[in-house]
Design goal:
alpha+beta; globular; single chain; 24% strand; binds coenzyme A; Aminopeptidase; 2 domains; 404 residues
């Protein structure tokens, strides 16, 4: 672990973005010959060429395609756990290279999840949807809508054990709340807090400097061996307790396993190596005094203000010893300092903070008020619940580690 192979043994497929079909030949989105199918390797590369300008950020198209190919080989995605989907029309002719026309595309990642009811926990398979895309030339014709309708149906049984149905799927919308809601993925509460970078404890304006003596940095191996197994055990306990406390309300969660963290870190490692020739080895911090921990990940955006250190998951033991708020404050401070070391202009961002986390952030901010804001345009965490229509569902730990 830690030995990060920038160029794993991945054979690159030489291709380009396919020439768009003339608009007069495009089918109606309601056409019965339109179908959603898993993409071939060639079609997958063509999708990356088409969507590169939307998601490559500071990378070149070639670097972006290498990253996407690299991401397919992580614990979370390998062996068919990621599916690349294309919306195509069987009436249209296949290209000379054998690729089918791509009217729209997306990806789904298989995830281990939970459903808690009345204190009982069931493990299940769920999916996260990402990279929903329709090329510019085809937009506004209803292809993405048709794709989401087909995908919603497919995911009810996709990669589920024979005879069983999925309970839910998730996605993070960058285009607000309404488009996906129209297809069944309803926006959840989507809170977040942001903290600025700081140079060190002495630069804090507040009187309440937290006790950082027990704070230790975490690397990938610590996450795999100790922190993620502990995070899973805590989450399972929380789900049991919370679903018992609110009977008949389904409580769902995505398992905070090492596979999720490794996938986020693979993106991070790739960007850091490619852009700065640096290895971001510090993946979080724990406080030995209380057992609290933060797992984080650096994310580089298209502009420097969007470079952020994201907290992937906050680990707070159910039976935490000592002062949890002050312990989390010490860990947040460590994250702010790490963000400074990496010049993350956008500071530290944390999704779905618990009241203890908000209080901890407030204690660091001094007299300045820590604002809990709502994500309603970007990264809008959305849930498609397949149980009862209109049923209230609680998503426990809807934090950044789940994002894809
Ligand atoms: C979003 C996208 C997939 C829509 O594809 P499309 O085939 O044009 O979509 P459809 O024709 O089926 O539906 C268009 C609907 O999406 C809405 N929409 C499209 N882009 C939007 C945006 N940036 N913000 C909000 N809504 C948007 C349209 O307003 C329209 O809504 P309406 O049906 O109420 O009129 C396409 O614009 C795209 O690929 N954008 C770039 C990548 C991206 O942002 N993907 C989403 C990531 S979460």
């Amino acid at each position: 672990m830690g030995s990060f192979a920038m160029k794993p043994d991945i054979s690159v497929v030489e291709t380009t973005a396919p020439v768009p079909i003339p608009s007069s030949e495009l089918p109606a989105s309601s056409s019965p010959s339109i179908t959603l199918v898993p993409a071939t390797l060639l079609e997958r590369y063509q999708c990356w060429h088409i969507n590169s300008h939307s998601w490559r950020g500071p990378l070149s198209t070639e670097q972006y395609i290498s990253r996407e190919a690299f991401l397919e080989h992580q614990l979370l995605t390998r062996e068919g756990k990621i599916t690349y989907w294309i919306l195509t029309d069987t009436f249209l002719s296949v290209g000379a290279d054998g690729a089918r026309p791509i009217l729209a595309a997306c990806e789904t990642l298989r995830k281990e999840g939970y459903l808690g009811r009345n204190g009982n926990l069931r493990k299940l398979v769920t999916h996260g949807v990402g990279s929903v895309f329709c090329r510019k030339e085809y937009r506004g014709r209803g292809y993405a809508s048709r794709m989401m309708t087909e995908l919603g149906k497919s995911l009810e049984t996709w990669q589920q054990e024979k005879g069983t149905k999925a309970s839910f799927s998730v996605l993070w919308s960058d285009i607000g709340r309404s488009f996906y809601a129209a297809h069944g993925w309803k926006a959840m509460s989507n809170t977040r807090i942001s903290l600025p970078v700081v140079s060190g404890q002495n630069s804090l304006q507040t009187q309440n400097k937290p006790d950082c003596s027990g704070v230790r940095d975490l690397n990938a191996q610590d996450l795999r061996d100790r922190i993620c197994p502990k995070a899973i055990a805590i989450l399972e306990t929380n789900l049991r307790l919370r679903s018992e406390h609110r009977p008949n309300i389904p409580h769902i969660a995505i398992r905070p396993d090492y596979d999720h963290m490794e996938w986020q870190h693979a993106r991070e490692n790739f960007q850091a190596k490619t852009l700065f020739d640096r290895d971001p080895n510090i993946k979080g911090a724990e406080d030995l005094a209380t057992g609290c921990a933060l797992i984080w990940c650096r994310v580089w955006g298209e502009v420097p203000q969007n470079n952020k250190l994201h907290i992937l998951h906050t680990v707070i033991p159910t039976d935490v010893k000592g002062d949890a708020i002050s312990s989390i404050a010490a860990l947040l401070l460590r994250a702010q300092m790490e963000a400074k070391t990496w010049d993350m202009h956008g500071g530290v961002e944390l999704w779905s903070p618990t009241p203890d986390v908000v209080n901890a952030a407030q204690s660091l901010a001094g007299i300045e008020r820590v604002q809990t804001t709502i994500r309603d345009k970007e990264s809008v965490c959305s849930l498609r619940w397949i149980g009862g229509e209109g049923e209230e569902v609680e998503w426990v730990a809807d934090e950044r580690y789940c994002w894809c």
